[in-house]
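Annual report, structural modelling task.

Input specification for the S-adenosylmethionine complex:
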Amino acid sequence: MDKNYWKGIYSKQSEGEQPSLFARYIAETHDIEGKGIIELGCGNGRDAIFFANANAQVTALDQCDNIIELLNYRYRTVENLNFKCADFTCLDDNNKYDIVYSRFTLHSISKKQEEKVTSWAFRNLNPNGRLCIEVRGQKNEIYQVGTPIDGEPDAFILNDHYRRFIHFESFCKELNSLGFKLDYAKEQRGFAPYKGTDETYIRIVASK
Ligand SMILES: C[S@@+](CC[C@H](N)C(=O)[O-])C[C@H]1O[C@@H](n2cnc3c(N)ncnc32)[C@H](O)[C@@H]1O
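The model returned the following structure:
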């Protein structure tokens, strides 16, 4: 979904973006050195690069071939960092990870795809592995702004861009019923201030 929107953004992308506060939070609260991390929807790669610099073994996926080609070329000598063009909603079960990391990507996919991704994460995490998610929820300031989508509750198109807003409590329950334990789960401001705004987001760290 929205592949051309993101490809357009990345065709104008410059280097040198700082890692997100979420990536820093994960690195501060977990020992990631030597750990296998898969990032779902890595965008310009800033968080994947940050995790690799902290000596994690990183696989970072995005659906946009233009940014993945650029990142693979730019980081071709970094052995513990591997970018792949892939749809993270249909991954196979061939590898195991210590951390599945998704920042601002679960709101890009349908509810059905989200359920596929969270159960894939549970199956493909090592014992004691973590699912780390930051995402727009229904307390987000642009919830219900834009054109609603028929048959997809809580999904809206705004400025040609699809977003589906997650219901925090239901999502926590769904993770619990898959077998995850919630180490950290909050919906609040302060997680991702951006250009003078400070919107409300969901942040979850769930362990297997
Ligand atoms: C809002 S950006 C977030 C990028 C990055 N995680 C960050 O926080 O800077 C969302 C990214 O997810 C990617 N994406 C969305 N759906 C995807 C899918 N099904 N498979 C792979 N990538 C996807 C988009 O191409 C885009 O790069």
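The mean pLDDT is 95.
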